[in-house]
């Protein structure tokens, strides 16, 4: 039988627990201290630069880029840390401290809105003004759009990704198709012509339209339709913009015409992975692929048994004049708000993102699309002639992107979720689905504000 | 007076001694339980994105999670499904395997090792292996089923089959329960079986009236720890959903949690999604508190039943 704990002990235990808890909880509420750019960039200093690249060739390319900077800025040394995921970057931006990065580079543009509005990254507008660089005339339109939120430019494009159409030229010839499709009607007809069934599955599928077909996300399809995601007041327009409904309908038609959702999903589940040599486009299992500029190098490396063709993705039949556009996204570079060396950090960011020679050399090494208009036209760019398609898509003023939002890419997941439900037949009334999704997007944004 | 004074001093010394002995636990309790707990409650009423100082938002986060966050109810349903179905099956299966192995006369060590080994497999590797085995298009399981004319399920790609597929994987890793049950089964006094046999008890009656009462504390332990583990189930459904969906989070894409159709979404995934992907720590705290309340409720319910389950004394 346990004895009763004396009252004094109980009281002391409670007091100790409560006071420790209160002490700790109050310290947790402390916000971050603001930093200002008062450092002298001409003095000897060392910056920490975190990036996400991890492949040996990519890491080497980043090192070469930084070496170029150190050569032009001998007083600024850069400690480069690679393979940094967004999660790690987020944590470091929150925590700050002596080991935190001064300059970060992320593969995703999804969090730009959150970072800009929360002040986690420095607004670069004053730096651009001081350096006399106009971002509007320096970067392609879409890239300009995804690196800022409500006038706060907290990121700069550092190489970009453009989405286009890869096609199996040999399969095209066999099917009697002479040129890549320019409109979605032509695309649908070609996809059907290229589809060869084999029992309950496919010997060759014209195109994998499912939203789980890696890059065939809702926003990538929609990029070809020129959607507006938000109105001037920041409310979702997906229920009222006909471009959105048109994109959903086009994809659903492709799903239905090419065999139906279940059959396609079963086929997809058995395909090789997106980043491996057994990618279904490399193996000839699918004849057309919506993908980014990086696929060309990967496909060539896999030495496929057919000739690879590259073209812009189709556009809606009534927007034939917009053919040549594509969806654009990319890597971004930013300065951490916790950095105490923001002027020196700006020198590095400026060099990496606006120095034409540096951007071109980095693009040549990484095989991504250059992120300045000058670099896109540079004669020093070395590339396979087919890569030119992506340079043109990136420079095309009609190319689109998904705008930054206060809660990052949450609205994209909501749209994508509707896409999953619509393609699988769970949602049949598209107009009602879009209305509900728009209301959800507005609620999510209100929650984040 | 002097006696009272001495008594007080004695009490004080005793209290201090008790406190000194309790202090390691008290510090641990304050730092690892009380502080996180109080913070979680505090932040559930705050708007906090991790960057700006938190601001009071009243019940906004609670309303958002319960009324507007589309993933909450599916995740709650899935978590409850895992708690009820998966835990029951795991206990039954673990007990069954444990009983079988205690009955085996030869090569017991081999069987013990064979059944225990899968438990040691790292969760991510085990899930990847199951995603490969259960691939609806190319997996060997479906090839086998099809060859004998059984309609092959979509497993992790079908919302109706994804949770059974997960359960199957958890049953495969039942080695921990098997070992515990084996120890308990071998601990049942032999004379009780002998007495039951002399009374003419059948095998079922021996199990019902001898084995079960003797191992009921262990069953209780397995159920309570199983419920808590099921509540915290995060890695396996996340990896299974990610692998099966084919979506790799990259530039411009966002991962859909709970593929397919939210069927593998669990409450811990929501805590991560809200807190670390949406930077909405307030709402993440609400989900964490729901999870805590549910764990407490389940454990309390099971502990109340304890008296009924334990008959042989503990």
UniProtKB/TrEMBL annotation, chain B:
<dbReference type="InterPro" id="IPR000515">
    <property type="entry name" value="MetI-like"/>
</dbReference>
<keyword id="KW-0472">Membrane</keyword>
<protein>
    <submittedName>
        <fullName>Multiple sugar transport system permease protein</fullName>
    </submittedName>
</protein>
<comment type="similarity">
    <text>Belongs to the binding-protein-dependent transport system permease family.</text>
</comment>
<feature type="domain" description="ABC transmembrane type-1">
    <location>
        <begin position="76"/>
        <end position="302"/>
    </location>
</feature>
<keyword id="KW-1133">Transmembrane helix</keyword>
<feature type="transmembrane region" description="Helical">
    <location>
        <begin position="165"/>
        <end position="188"/>
    </location>
</feature>
<keyword id="KW-0813">Transport</keyword>
<feature type="transmembrane region" description="Helical">
    <location>
        <begin position="209"/>
        <end position="231"/>
    </location>
</feature>
<dbReference type="InterPro" id="IPR051393">
    <property type="entry name" value="ABC_transporter_permease"/>
</dbReference>
<dbReference type="InterPro" id="IPR035906">
    <property type="entry name" value="MetI-like_sf"/>
</dbReference>
<dbReference type="Pfam" id="PF00528">
    <property type="entry name" value="BPD_transp_1"/>
</dbReference>
<feature type="transmembrane region" description="Helical">
    <location>
        <begin position="21"/>
        <end position="45"/>
    </location>
</feature>
<feature type="transmembrane region" description="Helical">
    <location>
        <begin position="281"/>
        <end position="302"/>
    </location>
</feature>
<feature type="transmembrane region" description="Helical">
    <location>
        <begin position="80"/>
        <end position="102"/>
    </location>
</feature>
<keyword id="KW-1003">Cell membrane</keyword>
<keyword id="KW-0812">Transmembrane</keyword>
<keyword id="KW-0762">Sugar transport</keyword>
<feature type="transmembrane region" description="Helical">
    <location>
        <begin position="114"/>
        <end position="134"/>
    </location>
</feature>
